Amino acid sequence: MFRTIADKVFSFDVEWVPDPLTGELLHGIEDNPPFSYEASFNALWADAGATPEKPRPYVKTVLCRIVSICGVYREMGRKGVPELKLVSLPADPTDASWTEKRILEAFLRAVGGSHPQLVGYNSNSADIPIIVQRSIIHGLDSHGFAERPEKPWMGVDYFAQGEGSVDLAAILGRWNAMPRLDEIATLSGIPGKIDVHGDNVWQLWLQGRLANIVHYNEFDALTTHLLWARMAHFAGLMDDKAYQAEQDAVRALVEAELAAGKPHMQRFLDRWDFLKKTIAERRPN
To answer: Model confidence over 224-280: pLDDT tens digits?
Structure first.
């Protein structure tokens, strides 16, 4: 269990798909030009051990392309009240200039500059490695993200076991005992997967539906933050009043995003209300 809540917290999630260029470079671009995106995907899946029973096996993160990073940025205000902001990369899914490189640069500058406590789900095993791997492939400067202080009290270290990078999945279990984010969230009355699942992201990307991926990514970031708050309450880092205030702050954030022109946020609110009502009615106290 994590021991502290930093003044700045970033609960985040990353979405990626097999990288078409990787498929071309590693599987015969010279022999079979030009590769289609689907052909490239299939080449990567075949190399990862695809079978008729499992046609789309896990592809190493280094062979994938990041298409979205979203998170809830939390900072304590002057009056001791948490202030939340939803961060979505790409900021505009219709803007083609939001390449993987630009997404990574924006993330590294923001996180490397402010050094928040990172919170994710399976993030130390997947999200942070793919960010590092793909940043190196693009030849990027980490802008402080990769700094390794000599002593724990001298700064945030995202690559050491500690409070700099909190992986909720690793805390909750190992191997077969580890719940999926959707499972632990839904059973806790927190919206899990809505409409889209991780296995569908590649299809949405091939269809040019990047906005749908970003919406899904935003939902996962909100879910991660709500689960983090619940676990902080369990750990004694938030009392009942503070935990309720955190939930209220998330609801206010979602409602503000809805009012600002994000109609998909209504689905998150509807699912949240449904789960709370259903659990209250059917789970004995």
So the answer is: 999 999 999 999 999 999 999 999 999 999 999 999 999 999 999 999 999 999 999
Query: Domain tally for the chain?
Result: 1
In a domain, 230, yes or no: yes
Q: What is the pTM of this model?
A: 0.95
Evaluate whether 118 touches 13 at the Cβ level (below 8 Å): no
Are 185 and 223 spatial neighbours (Cβ–Cβ below 8 Å)? yes
Does residue 84 belong to any structural domain of this protein?
A: yes
Between CA 192 and CA 186 the distance in angstroms is: 5
Q: Which residues contact 270 (CB under 8 A, 6 or more apart)?
A: none
Q: Check: CB of residue 108 under 8 Å from CB of residue 140.
A: yes
The whole domain housing 248 covers: 8-282
CA distance 147 to 158: 8
CA distance 266 to 183: 21
Q: Cα(252)–Cα(236) distance, rounded to whole angstroms?
A: 24
Helix, strand or coil, per DSSP, at residue 66: strand
Domain of residue 41, CATH code: 3.30.420.10
Tokens of 148: 């390794």
CA distances from residue 58 to 118, 131, 186, 201, 265 in whole angstroms, order as listed: 25, 17, 25, 13, 30
CA atoms within 13 A on the CB side of 154: 5
Residue at 1 is within a domain? no
- Give a yes or no: residue 255 inside a domain: yes
Whether the Cβ atoms of residue 192 and residue 267 lie closer than 8 Å to each other: no
The SS3 of residue 241 is helix
